[in-house]
Structure formats: C-alpha cells, structure tokens
C-alpha cells in the first residue's frame, strides 16, 4: 500500500459536497434544515461518501430512514432522485438500458414506405439510424449516469441475484457503461449512490469493499422527538415525547416487528387526524393499527402498562 | 492519537488489532480510512471513530469488534482484549451428559424428567475438537459425502426462458423481425423458468445432540455445494450463523472454521429462544420466506415448551415448508414425548429421522419436495438400529 503524506489525499475534484458542508456537523445541519435529522455517525458516513465520491451502503431495521436519506440528499443537492428498486430476477434490460424495439420496427416500416415511393433505400444509413440515442430507453442506472448531478438510490439490493450484484459492481467502479451499438456513456459527475439492504442474504465482499458502510439503529428518544417535531410541526412537544416514549417501550417489548421511525410518524399523524391532543390508553388503543401490524404484537401491546410508560412524559 | 507520534504507525497498529479481532480490514479499506481521515479532524476522537467505522466495517457483526478494538487502541487503556482464538481444548463427545446422549431407555415418566434435567444448564463455552474423530467415522462420512447432494425444491422464478409454447416473447419476436427486415416471420414464446428454493438448516449442537453434530455439519457443508442457496445456523445456548464458515470447499477446513466460530458446543438447549432469535434477526426479514427450513434436533427443550410452539407456528407461516429431522425418531417405539418436540410437531410439515447416512439421504429427498414416505425414515432407522 502506498501511503501519501496527509494533505494530498484530499481530491477536491471528485467531491460532491454541497456548498457549506465543510464538516459532518455542517452537513447534518443542512440535512436538518430539510427535515432529515442525522446522528453523528450517519452524518460522518454521508459526508465521507459525498466527499470521496464513494457509494454508501446502509443497513438497518426497516423504517429507520435508509431510503429517506437518499431523498434528503437529493433535496439538499437539488438533484433528481433516481430510484432502482431491486427484485428477484432483475436484469440489465430492466436496470440499465433497453432498445425500444417497437419504435425501431415502426421506424423501419416508415422508412420502407418512404423508400418505396422514392427508390432503393440506403440500407447502411437505415441501420445506423436504428441504433441511435432516441431508440434507447434509459433505465435507472443509465439515467443516473446521464443526469449530472443526480442521486441514485439502489433499494433493497439484497433482493436481486448475485449476478446482478457483480454487474452493479462494474458500473459503480467505473461510473460508465459501454453500449455496443452506441459507445461508452460516462457520467460527467458521478452520481451520489445510496444502496440499502435488509440483510436477507450476505452481499458480496467485492461490492461491500467499494462502499462505505453504515448501520442505522433505532433513534434515541430525544432524537425521535426531534424527528417528530421536524417532520410534523403540528405535533406538540408533549405529544411527541409521549409517542417517542411509547415507541421505545414497544421496541423493548420483544415484538415480532418493532416499530421504526416511519411507523412512529404514522402514529403521530393518526393521533393528529383523530384530534387527540395527547397519548392516553384510549387514544393509543384506537391508533395502534398505525404502529403494529401483527395481531400478536397488538395483543402484547394491550398488556403493556401504558400509564407507567407515559407517566415519565 | 495521543500515544503514538506517527499517525500512520497508529493506523497500521489499529489495522492489525482489527484484523486480529476478525474485522476484514484489508489494505484497500485502510487506504480509504486514511483518505477519510484527511477529510475529517484527525485530532478529534469521534471523527476518527466514525471515519474508521464507515470505512473499515462491512457487517453489523463487525461493529462490536470494532468498538472493542477502537477502545483498546485509542481509548487510552492498554489493550484489554483477551486472546481471540483460544487453543481448542481436546474435548469430545464424552462431554455430553451420559443420559442425554443415549435416551433410549427413556420410556417411563420419571426418566423423562431426568432427561430434561440432563440437558446441561451451564453454558459450556467450549470448543469441540473436530480433529478427534476416529478413522472409521471419517471414512464413513467421506463415503457419504462423495455421493451426497441436496437439491432444492423448485419454484417458478420471475425470469423467463425461451419455450416452444407459452406467452409470446415480444422482445425476441420483434428482434427477429428486425433481423428479417421488419417482416414478422416467426413468433417466439417464453415461460417462467424454475429455480430452487432457499434451504435453511438449523442444527442443534447442544449436549444431547453432540454425537450427531459433526455429521450434521458435514451434511450442511455438502448441501452448500448444490445449486440451491443454503443458509446454516447452529443452535446451542445461542444462535450462530455458520454459512460463511462452511463456504470453504474442503470440509475439514470448513469444519475447523465452524468449531472456532461456535462458542457453545455441547451446552444446554433453548430451542424456543433460539428459533425466536432466528426469526427476529434473519427469518422474518426474508431469509425464511418461501424457504424450506430444516430443523435438525432431538427436541429436548430446557425452557418453556410453549414458547417453542409459538415460534414454530410463526416459522411455519413464514416458510414454504418446515421439516424436522430428529435422530431419536428412528428408535423403535419412539413417541414425540419430549416437551419441546410435542409442542413443535403440529407446525411441522414433515417429521423425519436423521440419525444415519441413509436417513440423511431420505431427508434430502424430503427437502427436494419428494413427499415423504412418512414411514421411510423409520424403516431406514430400523435397519441401522
């Protein structure tokens, strides 16, 4: 390994940091202004990923804000968010590009008709016309390479097959793709790449090595209150505290599916819709369906001593 | 980094500690760490911590190791970590409680009680010496594995493949028409292809299963060579994922890796708690969904069997099929009376034996979806008993 003296490693040309983000804390402030509250670790991870132009691999419980971070970064960079939802059997024609065959066929027919009137068609020119950019359908990966700047969200990468991962690795290391009929498309500015995984299977080490890694835990009570207040300004401090405390209690109750921040936000919204000024056992029972989606969990939650949980609010 | 004057030296030392702790901090990651530090304030401990965590870790399992290594190197205290790889003790099957290892005479009620108590309550954090196998056993297992495969049950996939009949493959049809100058000469068809389902093996390595643990792990190792994705976990006093350890081609190397990774050989059994841990951390998230889940256990439960029943119900709702292989099933006159087994059985799709080479082959048939033959396990068992 060649280690260069400190000070020369900072390659500012590849940095995608927005203006004003001079440190992780400054980036967290910028994200916070947009309504996304990042803790120290996530801010550092996002800062480094932006500064060094590396993909960011996020893992964590469902509903802890993995996908929301990509949206927040897109907002902050004023760049479009291009999302690639992975699923089993996804392949290059779904993720990268595809030729628009029906349009090519139509074009061919139209050219033939025109040629029938005018004389012999120029076959070589016709073929050349068929494989031009306008017959190419850009799928999310190509769209992200062609749009600068952009934020590319590759969601639930663990759902795709291994082969797709290898293919993705190729694109993420070069930020370029070669289309045999057209040539190479290279991103003018590499997109900001956020990958999320639910860990239903182990990702390949090679892909992990390309990425910066961050594990998103459930937020602390204070942070959750801040998130609730930032996302739902109508929620009172008291209600936010009650909901956050109740969510924390639910998370430690050994449920099948502990609620994430997304569920807590839904819960607070449901309470607002019902006009409940605060969380008490009655309003909690009425809105529990917003947080807990399993019958067993709801039964267990009904056994909880809500008064004790909420008394510290 | 107050202790070392040269930051690069400190980084190199930190990397060594990390690697010793089991975090795969290779040169590429270290370079990324160094570059990341350049963007942050290297004199602030928190910045160094996060730069390292983001660049050097790649797995939630890495995080506690990283924290420990970081505290040891930059925390100011001396290196507080114990030896990470203890020399394997030469402990073998003999450590299993005698009664549990041979529960054959367990017909009466009194002895059943005794057996439940025999599942050791102390979490024996010891590592079984796999090198201590007898030569005949080795030869037998090698013969078994030479012929062994574990094909997965097939399911329709989202991918399609060309077929003679079926829906029209629009893309291929148009492409061939393009080649023919825009003339639709031939319709192409396609059909969903079929792929093997995921197989999840949960192997009980507690004291009462000690005589079988080695063979079952070899079974799992052989299974991983097939085309079906296979995930392997061990159940003892805690749940350990050993899929990675088993990925080495050489079974001896793989089993040695497993022996080093599993902290709880021949301890007590807490099936209910462990099945719940499996479902919470892995199963519900997707690992068990649509999979064929195989439990290899004798069903001796130290804790409340009701919990195991509830968790097995949950598992059977998630998984495509739940198969339970119980070595005791082959014994003549066996009744599933062990409290855990009785609680689990209503939620098990196939209940087979798993005590001998033949029984494992029969188990593979069941996993592949060739319906048991519910008596087959017992017949094979009788031959071997």
Can you count the helices of chain B? 15
Radius of gyration of chain B: 26 Å
Count of DSSP E strands of chain B? 8
Molecular shape of chain B: flat
List the secondary-structure elements of chain B in sequence, H or E: HHHHHHHEHEEHEEHHEHEHEHH
Mean pLDDT of chain B: 75
Beta strands of chain A, count? 9
Low-confidence stretches of chain B: 77-133, 372-385
Shape of chain A: elongated
| Chain oligomer state | heterodimer
Q: Gap between N and C termini of chain A, in Å?
A: 54 Å
Please identify the structural class of chain B as seen in this structure: alpha/beta
Greatest interface: A-B, 50 and 55 residues
The largest pleated sheet of chain A is described as: 5 strands, parallel
Helix percent band of chain A: 40-55%
Report how far apart the termini of chain B are. Answer: 65 Å
Instruction: State the strand order across the main sheet of chain A.
Output: 2-5-8-1-9
Order of helices and strands of chain A: HHEHEHEHHEHEHEEEHEHHHHHH
Structural class of chain A: alpha/beta
The helix fraction of chain B, in percent, is 40-55%
Structural account:
With 313 residues, chain A is α/β, with parallel strands linked by helices. Chain A contains 15 helices and nine strands. In chain A, the strands form three sheets. In chain A, strands 2-5-8-1-9 form a five-stranded parallel β-sheet, with helices on both faces. In chain A, a hairpin with a 3-residue loop joins strand 6 and strand 7. The model of chain A is unreliable at 1-9 (pLDDT under 50). In chain B, 42% of the residues are buried. Chain B is built from 15 helices and eight strands. With 385 residues, chain B is an alpha/beta fold. In chain B, helix 1 (7-20) crosses helix 4, helix 2 (27-39) packs antiparallel against helix 3 (45-56) and helix 14 runs antiparallel to helix 15. In chain B, strand 7, helix 13 (339-344) and strand 8 form a beta-alpha-beta unit. The chains are: A alpha/beta (313), B alpha/beta (385). Chains A and B meet through helix 2, helix 5, helix 9 and strand 9 of A and helix 2, helix 3, strand 1, helix 8 and helix 11 of B.
